[in-house]
Specification:
This protein has helices spanning 31-39, 58-68, 83-93, 113-121, 144-161, 177-181, 192-203, 227-239, 242-251, 263-275, 278-288, 307-310, 323-333, 370-378, 400-404, 413-422, 435-447, 454-471, and strands spanning 2-4, 7-9, 18-24, 44-51, 72-76, 98-101, 127-131, 173-176, 207-211, 295-299, 315-320, 339-343, 355-361, 381-392, 425-433, 482-489. Helix 2 (58-68) links the parallel strand 4 (44-51) and strand 5. The protein is α/β, with parallel strands linked by helices. The chain has 2 domains: 2-248, Spore Coat Polysaccharide Biosynthesis Protein SpsA, Chain A; 261-489, Rossmann fold. The strands form 3 sheets. A 7-stranded mixed sheet has the order 5-4-3-6-8-7-9, sandwiched between helices. A 7-stranded mixed sheet has the order 12-11-10-13-14-16-15, sandwiched between helices. It has a two-stranded antiparallel ribbon with strand order 1-2. The protein is globular.
């Protein structure tokens, strides 16, 4: 603020100081008008539109705006992942000193940005919330129970964070760029609001609140948030509070380096147990079969359990770095001209494309830089090729057994999609499989630190796997022991 006659005068926000993040999902009816309203503002340096896997004409309409205004950039998500995931992507792209979120539905008015930016520009605030309730501005009168729910969630959040906000759930938030880029956003949907509030409070950033105009829309007009998101918000308030973070660290301790020393040895023992699990291997192969071509690159052939099943579909080049495993693979391939074994990594393959399918079964979770490996694979795929990947799911299932067999991670759905997107793929299919297996893993590996044995594997194959096959043949479970992804390279 400037001093004038002993009175502080507000500093006008400078032109071209703002990155606007616009998350979009099927907003073809509104996105052009929204961008026009955004671009009128003199504060705008850049607009990052994150298309979250829209199935309508949203992306094409944004591309037309990109051609006419160099300030606009279009970033495409590999598939629909949710608003939080879109914001996470957009924040990484921001370059201006201040960052603001603007939904494509224009429920919030860009003309309020000067008010939102003022505390940031003055140096008083690090984060500014635009409140729909603490305001003299106009707002559309809509759902009473929504307002009750919002106030309830705000009260819970304030109790957890010791802030005195009036509208924690507002989508109108402005940040200093270094603040929002320092926050690791985990939530993929509307849980972003309570998560970022908790993390802002925990970091001690200075928070201001100003009144904003609100022109809400109805469900008939395309509003997407629902009661399930309210339930998730309650969970997020607890999960990202200080007590929740402490509990999470207590029950998810960082593995010690010594725990990785025998990973290859224990993994070998597990593979030997699973070598006799023919029904399980047949089930995995059945999940992949519809996506296989005639020229298959198998990355991480292991001891060949999947290799011989892939060979029933076409010629297979199995790449395997382990000395022990490659010996077994070569024994399997002896006399079978459908299988070619390469001792090494994808980098050891001849340059250029040559495969219409790349398959990775329980491989990607072992790789430190998964996106880099996917980029290497992309160089060996035909233009219309596909990658088919099977990986362990859910960070909350990560156990010490995962550490012992060299799992660097278990995947969240969005994290897997983002790795493929970063590597230049569009995701065609992404789903959880084996819901009963997730529960069995939670009890056995996560709670009791048990390793798979021949007996438990046999029981699971005989008693549970047939049920899984029937149950999930026409239904996609919301969780599962594993994730299956099918992706294609894009220009």
């Amino acid at each position: 603020m400037r001093q004038h006659g002993g009175v502080s005068e507000p500093v006008e926000p400078p032109d071209n100081c703002l990155t606007v993040i616009v998350p979009c999902y099927n907003e073809a009816e509104r996105v052009t008008d929204a961008l026009a309203a955004v671009l009128v503002s003199p504060y705008v340096a850049e607009v990052v539109v994150v298309d979250d896997g829209s199935t309508d004409a949203t992306a094409k309409l944004v591309e037309a705006v990109v051609q006419s205004d160099a300030r606009v950039r279009l970033v495409r998500q590999p598939c629909n992942l949710g608003k939080g995931a879109a914001l996470r992507r957009g924040f990484r792209e921001a370059t201006a000193p201040y960052v603001i979120v603007q939904d494509a539905d224009l429920e919030y008015d860009p003309q309020d940005w000067g008010t939102l930016l003022q505390p940031l520009v003055d140096g008083r605030a690090d984060v500014v919330y635009g409140s729909r309730f603490h305001t003299a501005h106009a707002h559309r009168v809509l759902y009473y129970w929504h307002s009750v729910g919002n106030r309830f969630l705000t009260t819970l959040s304030n109790m957890a964070t010791n802030l005195n906000l009036t509208d924690m759930e507002t989508c109108s938030k402005a940040f200093r760029r270094e603040v929002i880029q320092s926050i690791d956003v985990h939530e993929d949907r509307f849980g972003f609001e309570p998560e970022v509030t908790a993390k802002v409070a925990a970091a001690g950033w200075r928070v201001y609140e100003v009144g904003v105009t609100y022109d809400g829309r109805t469900y008939a007009e395309g509003k997407k948030i629902g009661w399930r998101d309210g339930v998730r918000a309650v969970w997020c308030i607890g999960r990202y509070s200080k007590h929740g973070e402490r509990l999470s660290r207590r029950f998810n301790p960082e593995p010690k380096p010594s725990e990785f020393a025998e990973a290859d040895h224990e993994l070998a023992e597990v593979l030997e147990v699973l070598e006799g699990a023919d029904q399980y291997a047949d089930w995995v192969a059945s999940l992949l079969g519809d996506h296989l071509g005639d020229r298959i690159l198998e990355v991480g052939g292991g001891i060949g359990s999947m290799t011989r099943r892939l060979a029933e579909h076409g010629a297979v080049t199995a790449v395997e770095p382990s000395d022990r495993a490659v010996t077994l693979l070569r024994e399997l391939a002896a006399g079978d001209d459908r299988i070619d074994v390469v001792h090494g990594t994808v980098e050891d393959l001849p340059a250029g494309p040559g495969y219409d399918t790349a398959v990775l079964v329980n491989v990607l979770e072992h790789v430190p830089d998964d996106a880099a490996l996917l980029r290497q694979i992309r160089d060996h795929l035909d233009p219309h090729g596909r990658v088919v990947c099977f990986v362990p799911a859910h960070t909350w299932l990560h156990s010490r057994f995962d550490d012992r067999i060299g799992h660097i991670r278990r995947y969240r759905r969005s994290a897997l999609a983002e790795a493929f997107g970063e590597a230049g793929y569009a995701v065609e299919e992404l789903r959880h499989v084996n819901a009963p297996g997730a529960l069995a893993w939670l009890v056995g590996a996560r709670m009791f630190d048990l390793s798979p044995s021949e007996r438990t594997t046999a029981v699971y194959q005989r008693a549970v796997l047939p049920v899984v096959g029937k149950l999930e043949s026409g239904w996609q479970p919301p969780f599962g022991q594993s994730l299956v992804v099918v992706a294609r390279p894009v220009d």
